[in-house]
Amino acid sequence: MRLRSLRLRLLLAAACAIALALTAAGLGIVFLFERHVERRIGAELDTYLNQLAARITFSEENTPRLTGKPADPRFEKVYSGLYWQVHDEGSQAALRSRSLWDATLKLPQDRPALGTIHIHDIPGGPRGTQLLVHERRLAYATPAGEKILRLAAAIDRQEITALSAAFGKDVLASLLVLGLALLLAAWLQVNVGLRPLAMIRRGLAEMREGRSERLDVDVPAELAPLVGELNALLESQAKAMQRARDRAADLAHGFKTPLTALLADARRLREKGEDGIAAEIEHTADLMRAQIERELTRSRIRNAAAAPVDVAAVATAIINTLRRTPHAESLVFETHVEDGLAARIERDDLHEVLGNLLENAARHARRKVLLRAARQGALVRIDIEDDGPGIPAAQRDALIDRGKRLDASGAGSGLGLAIANDVLDHYGQTLTLEHSECGGLKASFTLPA
Questions:
Q1: Does residue 139 fall inside a structural domain?
Q2: What kind and span of H or E run contains 446?
Q3: What is the pLDDT of residue 137?
């Protein structure tokens, strides 16, 4: 299974690298410690050989003997793990430490050069132990002639192994603590290293919410090309959308003259008494004009960052305009807008939404239109209600989706609610239609604060 988390990948890679490095370091440290201990013990064994060599004398029978013994008390303890032995190559006589008891050091059968120290690992020591042996052949002048003696000092390998094992446990504990510290450092490093990506993500979220137009270019050099490409793509997209809006505006102007001519034909037909045909032509032209307005509204919606817009100011301007229309001049408009309330939306877009909803409410209201706006957490909630006949619940969703008119006799195309929903959809919001306590329809929506 592929890991899709970059942070987890980096942490796993760091953990593996740390584990391998600490394992290699631990093995290397233990190996070096064992070699150091072995050299240190070897130096002690060489000292014992020198002590033995200095204290050897010969009896009247020309047999070797010691005038004194090495001072280490372990030589006097049976099977203590530290041993010495002096072997006469001629007479095969041997002197040995008390620690050997009834055993002997079984030295190799070779004949090393005189005076040099040879190091052996021999099995079969006392109680079957493995021994590290330092051996030296020396020639002594005696009245009976030259004597060749083999001096050997040995120590049980188990002592070196025990020291290494104890040291290894100490090293393991230290490396575990070090490994945890390195993992913590790696976690901090990964989080610091990925922070610029989090900044880019927040920048994209701000662009989606309309709070900025481009990504901040103040990023590490490794991410600068990515940010530059994203900004270039956004610039190209903005230019393409501007061209699309311009083409849509040109298209609307192109349709204006044919629609005007079509309505003129309808008036002439009505003057000739063809009221039925004239009504059909006017209805068709009305639908065409409304559909064009809806598509133009969609094309005008911008992706640019939106500054906070005063909700009360926009609502007041729209209501003042509606009061001059025939169907709204007798209505009462009640507004309850929280002081200083602002929504993060393009002013033209807010005007489009409130204009369509207030006009729709005024067209169906009997006496009153109510507008409420207040902050709701990080959002602004706006409710527009009327005391008209309302809309059955089963027909509300279809009205938003298709802009269907429920009263074919009234003026306008009935696409106002659908246009408002299209604009809100761009900001990630949805228009909600409910029954109003005033008796008619309640249209509600939210916007970023």
A1: yes
A2: strand 441-448
A3: 92
